[in-house]
């Protein structure tokens, strides 16, 4: 029976900008866990944390090779090629800048993705570029070599002015020009003309990020892995580790993890709440996590059925607890 559980919950913790009136969720079990935990500094970006947990190399002066790894989860072997995520987006200009909406808002059909990719490949074949679209929301660009740029993750650009977040580095000018050409190509494409007639937002650009070749190895941090996230699933594939769907709650996890000494569960419920500027959704998601995970984990720790809990809330810290945490009633209360 599993006695060690690691919970990775992007978007759970961290500060909100001052302009948001953020409701305080009722989450006594989570506050109990945070108050009694030992806190250790860790990677401040969840993607880098996943690489660290799996023992995959983290480049010092380059992108995390997200594109190559997530392709594994999408059913493709990236081989030894250099890959770049080229995810479909909608750009909306106004007087304050050019703002980005990601594929979650676009409802892209596979046939639309295939048509735009075919137009891209035909236009840029002489540059040695090839666009692969295994699923509507994740697109991949095969490159002949290192593109000579550093990029920003798509999650850091959603809802923001993209101008300060464009690729930078020795070849930045070339990639800015390529981005402009892509926007012109897509704007005039029949796919977008049809979307415009249906009052759907255009797929009028791509977002380049996550450049690199497939890393040279990984190992699973736990025996049991549970996630829907394509990056974690790709790392599991790289580590030759089995991965299962996310359980409904901590009790379901414990029942299904009978043969595991330790498990890692990634819960993406609150992942985009801060990105989308939606504090009400965040409060609702915290309440759901409280009911399904934090309350059960508190009980399991108090009864000795769970020996160790590691909680990663996306604020740059790991909160670790053992069964002895129940005696730390003297700790100063940590609130959300």
Outline of this structure?
With 336 residues, this protein is α/β, with parallel strands linked by helices.
Give the percentage of residues in beta strands: 15-25%
List the total number of helices: 9
On the 0 to 100 scale, the average pLDDT is 93
Query: Strand tally, please?
Result: 11
- Tell me, briefly, the overall form: globular
Q: Biggest sheet: strands side by side, in what order?
A: 2-11-10-1-9-8
Helix content: 25-40%
Order of helices and strands: EHEHHEEHEEHHEEHHEHEE
CATH superfamily of the largest domain: Alkaline Phosphatase, subunit A
- For the record, the count of structural domains works out to 2
Question: What is the CATH class name of the largest domain?
Answer: Alpha Beta
**Name given to the CATH architecture of the largest domain:** 3-Layer(aba) Sandwich
The biggest beta sheet, please? 6 strands, mixed
Unreliable sequence segments: none
